[in-house]
Specification:
disordered N terminus; three-stranded mixed β-sheet; five-stranded antiparallel β-sheet; Beta-lactamase; alpha+beta; single chain; 453 residues
Length: 453
């Protein structure tokens, strides 16, 4: 049975590598400059070195999770919780579509482990868990995201969720994504190691990072990838060479391999540039277009969406999780443009361990989502937790939890249905004309019989 499964996995991987090869060979083994939005910025100075359609509204996909991490770290800085605070997975979180960790409702995970999972596996269920536990609900967390975006000077962004799942109203831009990436490195330098984790280890499971630049491009040290069919393949990447750190943003690539090659080319061009620039990141002119394009036709129409998802989830990651070390170290020398053969070369990472459940010595509070109730006094108990109940289409099987979760998962309490008091059935009302007749027409007086003499 195991041999059959391994054969299927190898066959699937071969097919995916073939698909990437076909797309990347069109570039002649090297990446031309991205045709869609891109941007290169110097992290220290904020000077924009190169840009194309940098303020064009775009669907950010999982790049959104950079903002989710920023809001979470700000909440820690403000004393609202700690990195060791356990967060509880709700029904709403557990029922997010893939990519996801697959934790069942009631699972507890510390904020520290949740943020590491977000940056490596990009699980949508964990993003919702972070949002609900910090702000009480996804909607309240989105409000915090938008307030933070305004504070940071992000002009094209509007967030409606913490994970980047497609919504027509959920938009950003290459410039705005560079702003939040730079803000994370500037405002939370002590957490910069969140963004360059090559692989995680959860029990016996090894989870590789989707960022194909890590370990392949000299000096690459973060940050986040993203993919949906409407968005295409996106990346916010950072790299350091010769004491100089750049951020590159690429949006709308047709495949994950092309995305990596484009970003590498832009890094090469940026590190080679010694002067000039386009001005400060925040001062780039607004785009003439206010509507983000839908890349679905270019990215997913000619191939199955599941295959595109698998490429993002599984193609780059398995090559990045095989042995030890943190990949290629930063060097001051200028590197040649990365080739397809380079990014398909296996890279060896030492997995960073994560776990579920609270820390053994934790004695503080355990957070959870707030019930979606406007006025608890006017809301029946059976409706108060409707947002966290499984629907008829939910497929959450507590018995399917990974073995590593045993002992750390708290199953949701059984649903208690209130017992309705017995109500006497009301009689069927009479027609109005009969009721009227009964009121208007007096009943005849009873006839009295004469007493016999």
């Amino acid at each position: 049975m195991a041999d059959t499964a391994n054969s299927k996995t190898r066959l699937r991987t071969s097919i995916l590598f073939g698909a990437v090869l076909a797309g990347a060979l069109a570039l002649g083994g090297q990446a031309a400059l991205a045709a869609g939005p891109y941007l290169v910025v110097d992290v220290d100075s904020g000077q924009t070195l190169m840009a194309n359609q940098a303020t064009q509204p775009w669907y950010p996909a999982s790049l959104t999770k950079l903002m989710t991490v920023y809001v979470a770290l700000q909440a820690v800085k403000d004393g609202r919780l700690t990195l060791d605070t356990p967060l509880t997975v709700s029904w709403r979180a557990a029922n997010m579509p893939a990519s996801k960790m697959g934790f069942i409702p009631g699972t507890e995970v510390t904020l520290d482990n949740a943020l590491k999972m977000l940056m490596v596996k990009s699980p949508n269920d964990i993003a919702v868990t972070v949002a609900e536990n910090i702000s009480g609900s996804v909607e309240a967390f989105a409000d915090e995201m938008n307030a933070t975006a305004q504070k940071l000077g992000m002009h094209e962004s509007h967030f409606v969720n913490p994970n980047g799942l497609h919504d027509p109203a959920h938009v950003s831009s290459a410039r705005d994504m560079a702003i939040v990436g730079r803000a994370l490195l500037r405002d939370f330098p002590e957490h910069a190691d969140l963004f360059d984790i090559g692989a995680l280890q959860l029990g016996a499971q090894i989870i590789g990072n989707h960022n194909g630049l890590l370990g392949h491009y000299p000096g690459a040290d973060g940050m986040k990838t993203g993919f949906t069919c409407p968005a295409g393949f996106n990346v916010v990447a950072s790299a350091t060479q010769g004491g100089r750190r750049l951020i590159v943003v690429v949006l709308g690539s047709p495949t994950s391999a092309v995305r990596t090659l484009e970003a590498a080319h832009l890094f090469d061009a940026g590190f080679a540039q010694t002067g000039g620039g386009l001005g400060q990141l925040e001062s780039l002119p607004a785009s003439a277009s206010n509507e983000p394009p839908d890349m679905r036709g270019d990215v997913c129409s000619r191939r199955n969406r599941a295959a595109a998802m698998a490429e993002e989830e599984e193609l780059m990651a398995p090559a990045n999780k095989m042995v030890t070390g943190r990949g290629v170290t930063a060097t001051p020398e200028h590197s040649p443009v990365l080739t397809l053969a380079d990014i398909l070369r296996p890279v060896h990472f030492e997995p960073v361990p994560v776990f579920v459940g609270p820390k053994p010595d934790w004695t503080g509070p355990v957070l959870a989502a707030k019930p979606a109730v406007k006025d608890p006094a006017d809301t029946p108990p059976e409706e108060a937790y409707a947002a966290d109940k499984p629907s008829l289409t939910d497929n959450v099987d507590p018995g399917s939890a990974p073995a590593v979760l045993q002992g750390a998962v708290k199953p949701p309490p059984p649903e208690v249905k209130p017992i309705a008091p017995a109500v006497k059935a009301a009689s069927k009302p009479e027609p109005s004309h009969r009721r009227l007749a009964r009121v208007v027409t007096p009943k005849p007086a009873p006839t009295k019989l004469a007493k016999p003499n």
